[in-house]
Design a protein that fits this description.
There is one protein chain. The chain is α+β, with helices and mostly antiparallel strands. It has helices at 8-31, 38-51, 118-134, 144-157; strands at residues 55-56, 68-72, 75-77, 91-100, 103-112, 161-162, 168-170, 177-181, 198-201, 204-206, 212-214, 221-223, 229-231, 234-237, 244-245. It is globular, with a radius of gyration of 17 Å. 48% of the residues are buried. Bound molecules: 2-amino-4-trifluoromethylsulfanyl-butyric acid and cobalt (II) ion (CO). 2-amino-4-trifluoromethylsulfanyl-butyric acid binds next to strand 4.
Length: 249
Amino acid sequence: MPITIKSESEIKKMRVAGEITGKALEVAEKNICVGITTRELDKIIENYIRSRNAVPGFLNYRGYPASSCISINEEVIHGIPGERKLKAGDVVSIDVGAIFDGYYGDAARTFILGETSDENKKLVEVTRQSFFEGIKFAKSGCHLFEISEAVQDYVEKNGFSVVKDYVGHGIGTNMHEAPEIPNYKQNRRGPKLSAGMTLAIEPMVNIGTDRVISLDDGWTVITADKKCSAHYENTILICDGEPEILTMV
Ligand code: MF3
Ligand code: CO
C-alpha cells in the first residue's frame, strides 16, 4: 500500500483527533493513582473521548475489548484493562486512540506511580527522549529509516533495548496504514518523507532483553526476562521543517 498524503481538510480532522487523543492521556494522568483499577481508568478515558464526539479507536479493533491499553511494569504493550489495582512504584504505559470524523489519533505515555527505582525513572525518560531523537529526521526530504536508526542509537547508548517485534505505522482513516516504522536500523534508507504524511512514531523500550512474549489472553505482550518496559507514542504530521505533533497538548 502506498503512503497517503493528507489534504488540508484531512489534516484539519487529524488535528482534532490528535488533540482529543492527547487530552484523553492528560485526563488519564490526572486520574491515575494508587488503588484505582485499570478498568476504572479505561472508563474515564472512554468517557472523555465520547464527550468530545469522538469514538474510541481501539474498542472492538480486531476484537480488542477496551478503549485503552494499560501495560504495567514488564508488560510492554496491549495490556487489557481489568480489575487489577495500581500500586505504588508501578510503571504504567497507557496507549489511547480516538476517531474523529473518520480520522484516527494514536498516542501513548508511560507514568510512574509514587516512588520507583532510579533505573525505572531513567527508562521512562530515555523512552520519551528517543521519540524526540527520532523525529529530528521526521521532515520532508529525510528517509523514514533515519528515524528508526536515531531511536535505536539513543536507546542503546543509554544501555536499554528497543522492541523489534512491534513497530510504528502510518495513520489516517485507518489506525494502521503504510508504512511500518521500526524502531531499529534497517539495511536500506526506506521511503522518502513528504509533507502531508501522518505517522505514529512509537518507541517501546526494555531495560533488559529485547525479546518479548505474548500472553494467552491474546493481547498482552511482556518482556521475556520480566524486566520493566516503557512506551511513548505520538501521531505526527510531516512538514517541510519541524513536524507537527498532533497528539501533544
Ligand atoms: N497503539 C496501538 C498500535 O499502534 C494500538 C493498540 S491495538 C488495539 O498498534 F487493539 F488495542 F487497538
Ligand atoms: Co500506534
